[in-house]
Every structure is written in C-alpha cells, then in structure tokens.
Amino acid sequence: MTKVDSIIKTVLGFDFGMKRIGLAVGQTITSHASPLATLKAKDGVPNWVDLDKSIIEWQPQALVVGIPLNMDGSTQLVTFAARKFAKKLKQKFKIPVYQVDERLTTIEARARLFETGGFRQLESSEVDSIAAVVITEQWLLDD
pTM of the entire structure? Predict the structure, then answer.
C-alpha cells in the first residue's frame, strides 16, 4: 500500500534519542512537515503523557521513527532502543509505524537552522525537532 493509495493524511515523525525525542507533524497532501516540541526522555523512554497529548491533538494515521545507523549501515546500541520505541508506539497506539534510516538527518537539521539563524540558532534545543522534520519529509517523499 502506498501513501497515496492509503488513508494516511497526517503523520507524526520522531527523531529518537536517549535524552530527547524530536517530534514533527507532516501531511501527505503537501509532503511537508513542521517541527513540534522536543520530548524529554530518560534512557530512551519518553514522558508518555506528553506523547499521548500529541497523538490526541494531531490524530495521525501513521507514525515515522528515525532509526540511527552507522554510516556503513551497521547497527549501534541506540538502533535497538529506537526499534524498541517504534514497537512500543505500535503496540500502544495501534497506528502503523514506519521506520526510516536517519543517517545524516542531524547534519541536515543543523544546516537548516544555521540558514535561518546562524550560530545562535544551532545552540537552541530545536535541532531534535528539525531532525524529526527531515525524517518525516524523507518518508513523505519516498513514496
């Protein structure tokens, strides 16, 4: 099933991290995403109450989780934590969850922030949510 053929219209994307999880919302009709809040996490576990609020507010038909891999495509410890997070999302919310290779998304996010605000913008906590935008848009455009 492709995204165009499916009923997916709104998607939430996640830039998974052990301390922070960036969040973005995207639309299949525009293939565009916008940053949302960055969720705090402890050892990769988010504040589920805050995450529940985002699910209720946006009513997504799909979730997209960035999966961190080494540049050669091999896995690392955080890869397994991200996959576990994706599995938990699917179990908890009963919404399709897609996994996306997130290599270089943080670099792209930093470049986007630098373009809009220079070095000061790079110091902000927005990097994770912008990385979630990159991940979400990558998924939206891969169809």
Answer: 0.83
Count CB-CB contacts under 10 A for residue 87.
Answer: 13
What is the CATH code of the structural domain delimited by 10-141?
3.30.420.140
Q: Which helix (H) or strand (E) holds 93?
A: helix 77-93
Secondary structure of residue 58 in the 3-state scheme: helix
Percent of the chain with pLDDT over 90: 57
Q: Pairing state of beta strands 20-27 and 39-42?
A: antiparallel
Dist CA 78 CA 100 (whole Å): 14
* Residue 9: burial class (beta carbons within 10 Å; 0-12, 13-18, 19+): middle
Query: Distance between CA atoms of 130 and 101, rounded to whole angstroms?
Result: 16
Structure tokens at 125: 């906590």
Quick one: pLDDT at residue 57?
96
Burial of 68 (0-12, 13-18, 19+ CB in 10 A): buried
